[in-house]
Design a protein that fits this description.
The chain is α+β, with helices and mostly antiparallel strands. The protein has four helices and six strands, in the order αβββαααβββ. Strands 3-2-1-4-5-6 form a six-stranded antiparallel β-sheet. β2 and β3 form a beta hairpin.
Length: 209
C-alpha cells in the first residue's frame, strides 16, 4: 500500500501542475480479509474467506475547487492510479458549487503520523487465526450455549467471523500514517423451551480480540 500511495501522490501532483494547479491531495487506502466459520444444521462446517480493498482520493486546486473519487479492488495498480488522478481532477468543483465538498480542509495535516500501535484495536493472535482455530472457538461457544440452561434443547445456528485489515493514510503535505485493526463477530442461536412451547433465542457479540 505504501508503494501505491507514493505512486498515486506523485502522479496527482504531476498532473495537477498542468491542470489548473494542485493545492493539495490526500488519500485513504484499505485492504483486508474476513474468515467465517459456520456450523450447519446437519453438523457439517462451512468455511468462507472474503477479501476487500479500496482507495479514496481527494484533491483541491489552487482556485479552491475540490474533487473526490474512489475505487474498489484488491490490488490497485498504475492503471488505477491514472483513473483516480483524472477522475479526481475532473470532479473538482469551485467553492459555492452544489457539488463542492463542504468538509474539505483548508490546510492539510503535515508531518509523519503513528503506525497504529497502542490503539488497542489490533490482536495479532486473531490476525493469525486459522479456520481450525476459529472452529475451535466456535465449538467452545456452542458447548457453553447448550449447557447454559436446562431448557436449551438444541443449537439452532452458530457462526464466527474474524476480520483483519490495514488502513494507509497519506497526503501531498508529507503526512503518512497507517494502522491495523481486527474484529471478531460471534453469533449463536438455540432452541429453548418446556412442555408449554419453545422459542428460538439468538445472541451475538462483536469484539476487537
Amino acid at each position: 500500500m505504501k508503494e501505491f500511495a507514493s505512486l498515486l501522490l506523485d502522479q496527482i501532483v504531476s498532473a495537477g501542475k498542468t491542470r489548473g494547479g494542485l493545492a493539495w491531495a490526500d488519500l485513504f487506502i484499505k485492504s483486508g480479509a474476513t474468515n467465517t466459520v459456520s456450523l450447519m444444521p446437519d453438523g457439517s462446517v462451512n468455511w468462507t474467506r472474503t477479501a476487500e480493498g479500496g482507495v479514496a482520493l481527494r484533491v483541491a486546486r489552487a482556485d479552491g475547487a475540490t474533487g473526490f473519487v474512489s475505487a474498489t479492488g484488491l490490488a490497485p495498480d498504475q492503471t488505477t492510479a491514472r483513473y483516480l488522478t483524472d477522475a479526481a481532477l475532473d470532479a473538482a468543483r469551485p467553492p459555492g458549487s452544489h457539488l463542492s465538498d463542504p468538509h474539505a480542509p483548508t490546510t492539510p495535516v503535515s508531518g509523519k503520523g503513528g503506525d497504529g500501535r497502542g490503539l488497542g484495536i489490533f490482536d495479532a493472535r486473531l490476525h493469525a487465526a486459522t479456520p481450525g482455530d476459529l472452529e475451535g472457538i466456535l465449538d467452545d461457544a456452542a458447548t457453553e450455549a447448550l449447557r447454559a440452561d436446562p431448557r436449551v434443547r438444541r443449537l439452532e445456528s452458530a457462526s464466527i467471523a474474524a476480520s483483519s485489515s490495514e488502513v494507509w493514510l497519506s497526503n501531498s503535505a508529507g503526512f503518512t500514517g497507517s494502522y491495523r485493526q481486527t474484529l471478531v463477530h460471534l453469533t449463536l442461536g438455540v432452541v429453548a423451551g418446556d412442555a408449554a412451547g419453545s422459542v428460538v433465542v439468538r445472541r451475538s457479540r462483536t469484539a476487537r480480540t
